[in-house]
Design brief:
Elements: H1 3-14, H2 18-37, E1 42-44, E2 48-55, E3 58-61, E4 68-71, E5 74-81, H3 83-89
Antiparallel strand pairs: 1-2, 2-5, 3-4
Helix pairs in contact: 1-2
Length: 90
């Protein structure tokens, strides 16, 4: 499912117009993104938890040349599925 299909399903399930569904989905994405940028965690009970992890700087190898290269430290978004989501998939 892509973003447009998600918006279509939200509009149908919630009885919203496509325009309102676009605003709702975009708002959810923006809210989660801004919380993660601040370093906060977003817990949606029964669905899952969005968080940010920090990766240390490391040394890797260029796959083409085999030369060592440095990989700088970064922050990565992370999602852990909740029990309700896991149970619904099984």
């Amino acid at each position: 499912m892509n973003k447009q299909e998600l918006i279509g399903h939200v509009a149908d399930n919630a009885g919203l117009s496509k325009g309102d569904a676009v605003k709702a989905v975009e708002s959810v994405f923006e809210t989660i993104t801004s919380a993660l940028k601040r370093g906060d965690e977003v817990r949606l009970v029964g669905f899952g938890t969005f968080s940010v992890t920090k990766r240390k700087a490391s040394t890797g190898r260029n796959p083409r040349t085999g030369e060592p290269m440095s990989i700088k430290a970064s922050t990565q978004p992370k999602f852990k599925a909740g029990k309700g989501l896991k149970d619904s998939c099984n």
